[in-house]
Amino acid sequence: MTISIQGVSVSRGIAIGKVHIVQHDQLEVPEYTILNSQINDELSRFNNAIADARQQLRAIRDHIPNSTRVDVSAFIDTHLLMLEDITLTEEPKRVIKERSCNAEWALKLQRDALVNVFNEMADTYLSTRRDDVDHVVNRILRVLLKQKPLLHEVPDDHLKNRIIVADDLTPADTVLMQHYGITAFATEFGGPTSHTAILARSLGIPAVVGLHSARRFFKNEDLVIMDGSTGMLLIEPNRLIKSYYEKRQREVKRYYSSLRKLKSAPTESADGIPITLTANIELPKDFETVRDVGAKGVGLYRTEFLYMNRETPPNEDEHFETYLNVLKALRGLPLTIRTLDLGADKQVDGAGSQAGKLRSNPALGLRAIRLCLKEPGLFRPQLRAILRASAHGLVKIMIPMLTNIQEMQQVLKMVEDIKIDLDNCSIAYDSDIEIGGMIEVPAAAICADIFAKKLDFISIGTNDLIQYTMAIDRVNDEVNYLYDPLHPAVLRLINTIIKAGKKANIPVSMCGEMAGEKIYTKLLLGLGLRELSVHTASLLEIKKIINNTNIDELSSIIKKVLNTSSGAEVNLLLQHLNTKQSS
């Protein structure tokens, strides 16, 4: 009998193969007291475990083929950096000395403290970094507890063409398994913004997460079909089902192969309307993928990684060198830098003195531009560095989470003051640098016409806009069913923002996840959006839809969409919209 299991899709594609279940042994962390005379030996044992864990990760990184994209090794580098972070390497030693306890227990206490901080983070992407803390800590614990190497870290061909089923996977697990030839993976935990999910998309591995205790339905050697587009897994499919998915697998392969031909083609609707497609990037190393897919620049460069895994904020020169390296790699393509989007509630390291104060409702607290304006010592070095970098390429500044006009005026005044200071120091910059704002708060969306009069461009951040509009936490399993991009309120706000930009004659882009979902592309074009910034893995597919869409023919359905009273009605109209003009 065929069993169907539903999870959360994080990386598309069809995979057919036999299951290999990865068992991460449950680590039982002992707690015991040591004598004062044993403390130095315990400290040495802890230091040696850190060194061994570092060596293991370096060995994994060395197994990555030279042909693999550089952003893949960056995930391993992130874990290596965490092994240099004093919050993991020094704080447990302080606990060992103060409490006369064993190294394993000291590390567990510090792990718990760090995870509690990450759990308070409002930003979904950053809150899932707690998984990375767990992955690194567990690697150290395995060394301390003298556990044998995990089976999937032993290099042989037993994983080739297998679909991995696990409770969770680390980026190191994923890289190794891909190197050993796995065809897909499914996990009980994790989300679409975890490092492992991002890595799966970068590597092109079909992946499903959030199976929630479904691992008990699988056993080794089961034949499984995974549909990475829908998040569905089929255990022991019958002959007809298998034949159907084998056909789909061949079709998907041909489809993605054909997309590569679009890399150099212009992005233009079937009725001749030009559309700008840019890329969202996380790390400086991501620039290679920008050029690989023919993106017209970077529409969103997140700078939060500059502040991670360190005790103090990056200084102006660190910012400048990072931006300069990205500009050199982009070779003339425009770069939109989003200023720091962290908050006092969601920062464990280098984000200033306010960053240590947690609040019970972090999403509504001191974050993004609010934190930056309260902590100019944190904000000014970044602005100065961006301005300095603008002398070396086409750079734009984007301010996140604007809520009222006073915030925008403060930012513009600060930029003008820095320009005067740079002039006095004879430091070059682009005097006409464009400054834009992210509209991701309902208050800003409603007042978009006011912001549009003062800014050079605006960008719609749908992730937060939907979350704030619907008053829900999209990573909370109990309410995330309410996270609905098609809710009439959300669509009306998006429409309001686009109209405000048109009236002020400034560009309006969208850089949230909604922009990279192909089911919304025609809807957004019909609403008047002409610039989209998406993950590089989605860009060519979005481009194909744009090039096969007659925008003028969408107007009648769009009018109905904006006059509907429920998301369900919009969804029906959207289905009609997407089938009306077949691509």
Task: Compose a concise summary of this entry.
The chain has 583 residues and is of the alpha/beta class.
- By secondary-structure content and strand pairing, the structural class works out as alpha/beta
- Per the CATH scheme, the topology name of the largest domain is TIM Barrel
Separate helix tally = 23
Strand content: 5-15%
**Physical arrangement of strands within the biggest beta sheet:** 1-8-7-3-4-5-6-2
Descriptive notes:
This protein is an alpha/beta fold and 583 residues long. The protein is built from 23 helices and 16 strands. The protein has three domains: 3-23 and 150-238, Glucose Oxidase, domain 1 (3-Layer(bba) Sandwich), CATH 3.50.30; 36-144, Enzyme I, Chain A, domain 2 (Orthogonal Bundle), CATH 1.10.274; 267-580, TIM Barrel (Alpha-Beta Barrel). It is globular, with a radius of gyration of 25 Å.
